[in-house]
Amino acid sequence: MPRTFHQVGRRYGLRGPWVLHAVGLALSAGTLVRVGGVNGSGKSTLLRLAAGIDTPSAGRIEGRPRTAYVPERFPPALPFTAYGYLTHLGRIHGLSRRTARLRAEHWLDRFGAGAYGDMPLSELSKGTAQKIAVAQALLAEPELLVLDEAWTGLDAEARDALDDAVTERVAGGATVLFVDHDPGRLAGAVTAAYEVSGTSLVPVAQSAPRVRIDAQAPPGTKLPDALPPEATHETDPSGTVRFSVPAAHSDALLRALLTAAGTWHIHRVHPLAARER
């Protein structure tokens, strides 16, 4: 288990008020965990504790996963180019220089920032600097990824790319803990949700997550005989069939498509936001 909170409390100063008190939280492998709450409620404090940046004032936190953290504000005034910074961080994570550089190029390209790799961080726009902040967290393939408003400042394509990257990390067995101001962010894939209320962490009930699978086959191809329970589908004008299925049955639907008569091409697999289900 990557991280477990046992009656954790945090306050600033020996006699300062408790920001968090008696918090219990189990962050299991392969889960996506959302934290909500009003501004100033202690969400960022919780994430900093999970990332190991802050230490508890009371209680204890167990587990030492390989962790990466994206803060709410990225400090761009560092004496590096974008590639230099990412390569340096990769080396700190134990990657070879070549591997760190290749992963830096991969993630910058994926977030649409490859053209800025040789530019000093101090000269980057806020949005591009945020892409660097996200890239540094992903290049080390962390077991625990902590994202504090990481989508803020990203353009629409980069936000989608981060959604996909988070889904991939979770599918690969990592844990992702995040805060975001958009209530629909990754709603279809969230495993557990909490809200910071007062000094406590309160569970929030989640609707059953669903996954959409876009697939296409030659004209006249029949649907698989046995679709998983609660699977639905519709065909758009291009001939693409948009399947919707409970997340627990998504693998079964993929198997049905890939082993069906005819040739099905899978175009995209992604979680559905709550408003789409």
From TrEMBL:
Sequence ranges assigned to domain ABC transporter in this UniProt record: 3-223
Alphabetized InterPro entries for the sequence: AAA+_ATPase, ABC_transporter-like_ATP-bd, ABC_Transporter_VariousFunc, P-loop_NTPase
Pfam families: ABC_tran
Keywords, in A-Z order: ATP-binding, Nucleotide-binding, Transport
Keyword Glycosyltransferase recorded: no
Region Disordered: start-end pairs: 214-240
PROSITE patterns named in the record: ABC_TRANSPORTER_2
GO-annotated molecular function: ATP binding
Highest taxon in the source lineage: Bacteria
Gene3D superfamilies assigned: P-loop containing nucleotide triphosphate hydrolases (3.40.50.300)
PANTHER family: ABC TRANSPORTER ATP-BINDING PROTEIN ALBC-RELATED
Protein's name according to its UniProt entry: ABC transporter ATP-binding protein
Organism listed in the record: Streptomyces polyasparticus
